């Protein structure tokens, strides 16, 4: 997933409980991120993508913008500034004019429905291929935060990020990045780590440095949605993954201020400040709200919205044209999903020594790896939290034992 997790922190943790009374709902949210899927269509056919309908040119009607933001602004979960992230399939495929009209309607909805002083920010996660001057003008006009998906140099990126006809997309993505740099638009990148990346930490690091890419996040290739098997889901891969991340961490430390890596930044902040997590945005209700091109909405992980499961059915909780965000908390589906989600988090709190640096992880990883939210450790836990924590702590211990 391309979205950096915000987390709730504390210095202690205990088993959590919940209820859906009006008082109970006050513990849900506040909304931090609204993920809007303006189209299911993507101009690429990445082989590790979880989305089932990325070949279909479904597009969100502008008539949905008013009900979407009416539901957001009048919700009891709207209690702070929000970021609207335009995401999945390729959000720029709907064109500049769509965004100009959508943002104008969001401003109008703020006037009509927003009674709190909280701000609305915009971000977009794109493969970068369509970025041109018109897009850069829009990003600057509306102060977008831009995230670009690129896996490193072409010989790695083009293995997986291909067009529907099988051509590599690296050149097009780099042209988009060049447009952002020409316009001095800050951006971060998300790189997916697959088995094919693991022997090339130096090459990936040097590629980012040489191209002025300073803000990097790593997403591991995940077993998720229609992508039924990650190349990383093997016990014998873990040592190679650890070696890759350890080498990238060494390169980052050796060049202070050149690159910041999201995963290490988050962990180091928690460790240095002594904060510990009790939950994440992806396992606590209505911190994230995801809405598809038809106005269907869900919460927890954005990846859940477009897929269905044997255990829970689809993860759509309601539709903005008929349901309020709070009303769906009374449904059997929500209560089954959240009951299992919370059971899994509580199990993690009891059993896992890394819990304070993880907060119980992401339900989507738990479901797709183990078939339920009510479980604990996954490959995603091992790779995203445990291996990285061990690397950081080992470095700290060595630096204390051998101060320079």
TrEMBL record:
<feature type="domain" description="Radical SAM core">
    <location>
        <begin position="26"/>
        <end position="254"/>
    </location>
</feature>
<dbReference type="InterPro" id="IPR023867">
    <property type="entry name" value="Sulphatase_maturase_rSAM"/>
</dbReference>
<dbReference type="InterPro" id="IPR007197">
    <property type="entry name" value="rSAM"/>
</dbReference>
<protein>
    <submittedName>
        <fullName>GRRM system radical SAM/SPASM domain protein</fullName>
    </submittedName>
</protein>
<keyword id="KW-0408">Iron</keyword>
<keyword id="KW-0949">S-adenosyl-L-methionine</keyword>
<dbReference type="Pfam" id="PF04055">
    <property type="entry name" value="Radical_SAM"/>
</dbReference>
<dbReference type="InterPro" id="IPR058240">
    <property type="entry name" value="rSAM_sf"/>
</dbReference>
<keyword id="KW-0479">Metal-binding</keyword>
<keyword id="KW-0411">Iron-sulfur</keyword>
<dbReference type="InterPro" id="IPR013785">
    <property type="entry name" value="Aldolase_TIM"/>
</dbReference>
<dbReference type="InterPro" id="IPR026357">
    <property type="entry name" value="rSAM_SPASM_GrrM_OscB"/>
</dbReference>
């Amino acid at each position: 997933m391309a979205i950096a997790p915000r987390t709730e922190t504390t210095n202690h943790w205990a088993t959590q409980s919940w209820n859906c009374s009006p008082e109970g709902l006050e513990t849900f949210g506040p909304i931090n991120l609204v993920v809007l899927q303006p189209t299911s269509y993507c101009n690429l056919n990445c082989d590790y993508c979880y989305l089932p309908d990325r070949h279909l040119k479904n597009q969100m009607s502008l008539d949905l913008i008013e009900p979407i933001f009416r539901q957001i602004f009048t919700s009891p979960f709207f209690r702070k500034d929000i970021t609207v992230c335009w995401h999945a399939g390729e959000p720029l495929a709907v064109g500049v004019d769509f965004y100009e009209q959508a943002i104008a309607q969001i401003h109008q909805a703020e006037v009509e429905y927003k009674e709190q002083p909280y701000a609305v920010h915009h971000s977009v996660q794109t493969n970068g291929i369509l970025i041109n001057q018109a897009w850069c003008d829009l990003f600057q006009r509306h102060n977008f935060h831009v995230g670009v998906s690129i896996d490193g140099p072409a010989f790695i990126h083009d293995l997986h990020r291909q067009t529907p006809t099988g051509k590599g997309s690296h050149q097009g993505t780099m042209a988009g990045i060049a447009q952002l740099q020409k316009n001095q638009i800050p951006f971060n990148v998300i790189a997916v780590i697959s088995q094919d990346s693991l022997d090339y930490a130096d090459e990936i690091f040097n590629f980012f440095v040489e191209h002025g890419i300073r803000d990097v996040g790593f997403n591991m290739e995940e077993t998720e949605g229609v992508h039924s098997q990650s190349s990383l889901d093997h016990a014998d891969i873990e040592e190679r993954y650890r070696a890759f991340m350890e080498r990238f961490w060494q390169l980052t430390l050796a060049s202070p201020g050149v690159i910041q890596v999201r995963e290490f930044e988050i962990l180091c902040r928690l460790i240095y400040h002594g904060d510990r997590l009790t939950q994440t945005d992806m396992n606590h209700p209505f911190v994230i709200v995801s809405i598809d091109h038809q106005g269907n909405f869900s919460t927890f992980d954005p990846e859940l919205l477009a897929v269905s499961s044997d255990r829970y059915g689809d993860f759509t909780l309601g539709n903005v044209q008929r349901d309020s965000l709070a009303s769906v908390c009374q449904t059997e589906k929500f209560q089954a999903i959240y009951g299992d989600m919370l059971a899994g988090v509580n199990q993690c709190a009891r059993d896992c020594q890394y819990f304070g640096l993880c907060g119980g992880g992401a339900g989507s990883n738990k479901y797709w790896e183990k078939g339920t939210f009510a479980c604990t450790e996954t490959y995603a836990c091992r790779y995203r939290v445990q291996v990285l924590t061990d690397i950081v702590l080992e470095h700290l211990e060595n630096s204390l034992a051998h101060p320079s």
